[in-house]
Design a protein that fits this description.
The structure is a homodimer of 202-residue chains.
Chain A: H1 13-24, E1 31-35, E2 42-44, H2 45-59, H3 69-78, H4 83-86, H5 94-112, H6 119-132, H7 136-155, H8 159-163, H9 168-181, H10 186-198
Antiparallel strand pairs in A: 1-2
Helix pairs in contact in A: 2-3, 2-7, 3-6, 3-7, 6-7, 7-9, 9-10
Chain lengths: 202, 202
């Protein structure tokens, strides 16, 4: 009788989990339009995702109804992993946004597909829930995803509002999820935007 | 009667929370010794913290007893924020580690001190719990904090094991928290370390 061939690590469950974690490292090389607050370089999506998780922890009390913070954090950690293949699509890029859904779906197939069954569906469904923005957790997480780049822009003289020549209406529309999901933050947001667009250089 | 002077945003509770979040952006400029898996550059502490949160989500099932995953994630998101002032202290740097505790305590005073009361104590205690490594959540989080750089090193031909001329015993000792907190991962860890140190170039 032939000796049983041991299962290679890459085919084992733990091997699949570690392969996914190694693949995830690539998110550190996906660049967003937003600059760091010191203006030294563009932010990458991995560090952005960390900053969102911290933002959720710090602003949780302002959610209009209690949220399951574990779900919010898990959603924020995973919500941009598809950008490893699909890249970051700038919020105001109309052409890019027309193909974003299809590009991200293919990316999700491949990247979550690295995981063993169970985890694969679990992480994918967190990503889908974030994108659908229909649950209290997803609405809160989406508002957090607006607040963090807003702060980076505020700290860098308008940031992408300035460099991409956006209008006050475009920025307000982009920030709109905050109005309902973090209502106590809304006056601060509107004041900052108004001050920025009142300046002659804006 | 003098008109009441409106409270500046920086003195309001929301203002303090946003100031902390802006300060946290600096963690993206704190460099660790670990390289990205493509070898292109050193990893920063913010993206490292994100990767740890993802690792905890993916490996949760291997914790020997159930853990409160919300607490684990909150702990991992916040555990290295003190490095904004204290810098990353390389695990094998004896001199640096002799002063690490004092440097990080002062950093915690200043950085968590930016937050309003309540949140300040809450986030600081998560950091302290991680460092004490005495609860199941902290032990799991500490093991995760060993696994992630281990994978980056494995993927870059030994990484810091190689560049810093570490011995097999040093690396095994550093990885030891995994032995008890993620026992099912331990054989993979030991095999990888043994394979690396068996090579003539190691």
């Amino acid at each position: 009788m032939e000796p049983e061939i041991p299962e290679p690590e890459s085919a084992s469950k733990i091997g699949q989990q570690l392969a996914f974690l190694v693949e995830a490292d690539k998110l550190k090389n996906v660049l967003r339009r937003t600059m760091l607050t010191d203006g030294s370089r563009q932010e990458n999506t991995a560090e952005h995702s960390w900053h969102l998780a911290l933002t959720a922890m710090v602003l949780e009390e302002y959610a209009p109804a209690p949220v399951n913070i574990a779900k919010v954090l898990r959603m924020l950690v995973v919500h941009d992993v598809v950008e490893i293949d699909a890249g970051d699509t700038f919020a105001y890029d109309t052409a890019g946004n027309a193909t974003k859904e299809e590009r991200e779906r293919l990316a999700a197939d491949r990247i979550f597909g690295l995981l063993p069954t169970g985890l694969r569906e679990e992480l994918r469904s967190l990503w889908e829930e974030f994108d659908a923005a229909a649950t209290p957790e997803a609405r809160f997480a989406n508002a957090v995803d607006r607040i963090q780049p807003f702060l980076q822009n505020r700290e860098t003289g308008g940031g992408t509002w300035h460099t991409h020549n956006l209008s006050r209406d475009q920025v307000l529309a982009r920030m709109d999820p905050v109005r309902t999901a973090l209502p106590q933050l809304w006056p601060t947001i509107v004041n900052t935007i108004d001050e920025f667009f009142a300046k002659p250089s804006a």
